Amino acid sequence: DSDKNKTKLKFPLQNLSINNFMTTKMEAVYDLQGVVTHKGNSQGGHYISYIRQFSNSLGGAVSCSDNNSQSRWLRCDDETVVEVEEVEVVSTEAYMLFYARRQSNLD
Fold it and tell me: What rounded mean pLDDT belongs to the chain?
């Protein structure tokens, strides 16, 4: 079967906890950093990425683990990069999701 699965996933932007699946008591909470989508069918198409860009109050780039940082979402489509709202990110047909583990007090 060469049909593309078009099932929309529900996924959180923040606070994805996998603690219930851990065998240790280590805190495991993740925040979404990027999404890859595919427009088209299983025979061909086009990929679009959404990335979370972090900055501090001075406008400089920072690490995603910096608790004082602010973020915005960008849609990257070939040479076009535009800022988008979170609602666009969560309503897309996600193909791949990229999460980063939050720094916990235990680290």
Answer: 83
